[in-house]
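Recap quiz, item 2
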Amino acid sequence: MTAKKTIVCRCEDVTLGDIDHAIAAGYIDIEEIKRYTGFGTGLCQGKECMAAIATLVAERAAIPADHITPFTARSPVTPTPLCLFSAITPAATDDDAGPAPPREAFPVALKAEPVPARTEVLIIGGGIMGLAIAYNLTVLGATDVTVVEAGYLASGASGRNGGGVRQQWSTELNIRLMRESVDLCRRFATDLGVNVWFRQGGYLFIARTAAERARLEAMVKLQTDAGADTEILSPSEIKSLVGEISTDDVVCAAYNAKDGILFPWPFLWGYARRASERGARLITHTEVTALSREAAGGFVATTSRGRIRADRVVIAAGAWSPEVARLIGISLPTRPVRHEICSSEPLKPFLGPMVSELASGLYFSQSMRGEIVGGVSLPSETPTLAMGSRLAFLETYSRRITKLIPILGGVKILRQWAGPYDLSADGNPILGEVDSVPGLFLCSGFVGHGFMMAPRVGQLYASLLAGKERHEIFDRFPLSRFSDGASTSPREDFNIG
Amino acid sequence: MPSDTHSEASVMIRFAGRDVRAARGMPVAVALWSAGERVLARSIKYHRPRGAFCFDGHCGGCLMRIGGLPNLRACMEPCTEGLDIEGQNAYPSQKLDVLSAVDWLFPRGMDHHTMMTGSRVLSAVTQKLVRQLSGLGTLPDQIAATAEDAAIVTPDVCVVGGGPAGLAAATEAATTGARVVLIDEMPEPGGSLRADPRYGPEACAERTRRALASGAEILASAQAIGFFPEDRGGVLAVATRSRLLLFRPRATVYATGGYAQNLPFEDNDRPGVIAARGGGRLLLDHGISPGQRVVLAAAPDAPVDFAEALTEALTAAGSEVIVAQVLRARGRQEVTGAVIRDPDGKERTVDCDAILVWATPAPATELLRQHGCAVRFCAARGGFAVTCTGDGQTDVPGVFACGDVTGYVGPEAATDAGQRAGARACEAVR
């Protein structure tokens, strides 16, 4: 049984109609179309289809040839088994260090739409936080909202993370917030009309020492008290959950069956589409280059496409937030740290939970497409917004993951990429209005976990901006806590996986 | 005529539970084509029948489970005695996959973003179903052996790609006394020449001999998998079957050529629709006719000289060749015909057993882009072509490009460009 179809991407079964559909939905740069249709994400990584699709898009969306850029060339160029990377001797460091990593330029704007002259709320950053706030504002009836994004949707960390959603945290507040977020994730597909492939396969934190065991046990107690059903599993219980795991040197694991994973990109499309339908304006490929207060109150933002006056401004630019805040003279005590990640060839489902190893910061799960998606902590480096990939990452990742699941040694890596974590000193975010600049709001410093928290934080933030309920997070996590010297919140130290 | 470098000894491979005789060392995809097997697997989403397309190790057409490992390209795996070969993503078999109902149920394609989001119950069921249907292969049969330690290689010049441009660059560079290593992903160098009737395996062997005689080292069956600017001062990682090699050359010449592209006609993924170069490779490299009655579909702007040479060679080998624009491939499992438009504009249906597609190959620029080299889009030259001077210097010092990766130039011009780039690379390291 077959139907007539014209296939443009053989690996992912993307049809000519899918490309037209994406263009009709407003996605016209190659990176956006890749994400929206999935073309070029399969085994061949675009070798057979990218040029042909670029030609189609150039014709159909009438884009001049010199504005068309290819998507980023990810390594490995050919699927390569993990076991080969395990056999790299770790590099001697200093004298072998490469050149300073370059910043990645976002593709240029392909649509010449003007920016609005004024808006009530201007949100800088069209990642998950900015879009969740915009959407929830429109739900509360505040529709004079403009979101400005420097790149394409999903170009920052929101489009680069591993999609983990968990309730296993070390502070009561985060456990509570994440329990609420998990509920929102469960309903997201039907609430916003877009599939995000949220799958509650659980989250398994592996301990290899007695000290790690003690840490997990303390957390499990805290989580149980906060209403999250986390339990400690013995090695044999771990084995019955994931038969492929080697439990040699494994002491125990913490497991919560309600934790899960999702596919990050559609979250952004869902929020963006619904917010736009309700009147919010979303302007991509547009950088804010200056931001100042006006004498009469309010703000003026200069963008690469014109000036926008705004009554209030929210900086929700993830790891780019310190740069944006600096435009208006605010110094944010957060720093961008590159985090690398990779994806394997697609395999039939075998791995239920997200698995994480405390000692190494290794984490991995099996996506709804069947890929093993995961990362690992690397020795800290100078703060950078560079998003290049390193062989050293694959070496560390493959050693750790094949130690835990030896059968994965023969599984091939399809591609690797990186995104910036937005690291704060106490592991907690920076939220709420800036005391010294009334009308300026901050929403950053989520330490690589903003995505999973965004569904709930977006609601709470919209409620604050709309003058409704003020949640305790805005009192717990203000910018002023760093200058006061008195952090009012317990440190969140479970920022892995 | 079969290439003299393939052993004539035959082996038995096992495909879908039956024995198939094949030449030892012949790529699995070629052996199966020769045995009349066109449907090798099912596609990931619609479970459409799939078969080999490029025969060049680049597309995702011939992914199979081979020797207990998932998702291997059958066109890159050599036949060995008793080798187990299975299709993937098909129940119960490649030919009778009941899940191909998905293709039929969604004749206009499916919008997986909004599918079943209208109902909580349907949505929940869909999520479970999609999870079960996802993925292609299954886990390997056995734990992989420990790989040999990665080694660092520091030649003067590394040439990536053993087609006309790469062989010429390596020969030229080695002649001047530089230590040159050429890496090529296929078992034998030659690249596009192996599929081109104007050259063929003998010409490839001759050019390879010249490169070796000039002192160049050739590393075959090795794939450059990435340039990593931040590791060890910048390394080009090359994967062989048993280990990684980390190249730190003083100059790199990229002669990576172009990837075969398909054309957008209905059912253009039907097994039996193959790249024209794939057809050339079957005929010249392996002595196998792509079909008795073949439709050759060339893109309007594709270079005519290759299409003409291939038509002539196929005809000489006894195939009937119909040159036409293809509107639709026919055949439920594999190509049995085509709806074509003749040069005079008339539409008609013809019977055929293969459709050969010839479009300008897309420049293989990934590694150059990882170096930071600029590319420019030019549809007429195959897509995103790397920009460089006449002697191959890109905008990154020590990085050179020549041949079709700079936009399609064809084998003659690629040879000349390779010579110039090889000479220029030597000057750069002197």
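Chain B has nine helices and 27 strands.
The radius of gyration of chain B is 22 Å.
End of item.
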